[in-house]
Specification:
single chain
Amino acid sequence: MSDNGKKIGLITSTSLVVGNMIGAGIFLLPATLAKYGSISLMGWLFTAAGALILAKIFSGFSTIIVNKSGGPYTYSKAGFGDFIGFLVAWGYWISIWVSNAGLAIAIIGGLSVFFPVLNDSPFLSVSVALGFIWFFTWINSKGVKESGRIQVITTVLKLLPLVFIIIVGAFFFSLDNFPNFNLTGNGHFETFPVVAALTLYAFLGVESATIPAENVRNPEKNVPRATMIGTIITTLVYILGTVVLFGLIPVDKLSNSAAPFAEAGEIIGGEYGSYFVAFGAIISAVGCLNGWTLLVGQLPMAAAKDNMFPRLFKKQNKNGVPILGLIIGSLLTSGILLLGMSDGLVEQFSFVVNLTVLTALIPYLFVSAAYVIVLIEKNKYPNSFLKTFLLGLLGFAYAIWAIFGSGSDVVFYGLILLLLSIPFYLLMKWNKSKM
């Protein structure tokens, strides 16, 4: 088989973007937003606009730096050099393997609807979660093509119940249920940043197609297309899904719902409708875990090829998979899960997961600025310098706003987490000088 036969195409790359962005969170988020009122739809629109700007930047970058994996790391390094590139790779890598533990827990939460025993036995629930982590480690060890097949299937299966609720739910829509614009009692300008920040985390993953770029057929065409198409599909699902739920379930009931889409499914199709959506929520988290497991090996491999991560991260098996990087990432995820078995650490675990969001946002900041820098250096502007500069500036401003919205504690401890990488960077530079 030719190398091209082992690579993924547009559909799979798009599934990676959609699958990594749409996790378990969207199945709960409308309930959280409902208590603020329909002003939360403005939050969705604002965040979606920011995500589309970032998608455009990543798409543009993927046509400039072609056939090189690493996405945020590669682009940041191109604009700012080794140190910033390493900082981005370090933070982003940590965010993946910590977030994978959260996804595994979300899968168990979904399964507990069908198997309540998982709620009663921490040992059993953690064992099943570990089983999912290592199952997808095994799947991804077989190659990007195999992982991609799973990603396409799970993306279709997760979209089915959401699209079902959006289309069929529209026939049950009632304006009487639709919440007033602002239910908080606070001013609009005070409430808007809160709802926009809540929707922000649902768009993390916009860069997913750029990370395994070397494993994509015709990357100069398919990576930018997948990034934009995936972001647009996700945006439509998020906004339309929230609108339909607002008109389907009374606000007092919706704001207290533990599974709003499942409740909508029950209104439309009875008990079976509820189970259909609940199953979709599980598949959503499963597909997300598969997609991020792929990236936990791909990103450090790109850094290791530049001698910015230990050499073992670029060691590939016969399927072209960075097998040691994949295993190390899953071992670290397993460690986080085992720590979470202690009830006293649940709150700390939630904080760590939130902390890693910052390390996923920092790359957006540097990539937006690097986009303008690289284009200036190459004297290559897709449209005009002004438009290029404006796009980069908007992406940079949105990333700053998103980081600000993360809260002072998260920003403070997140920066410490990033600064802890400096001794490792110095070690990598020393090793590089000896080669």
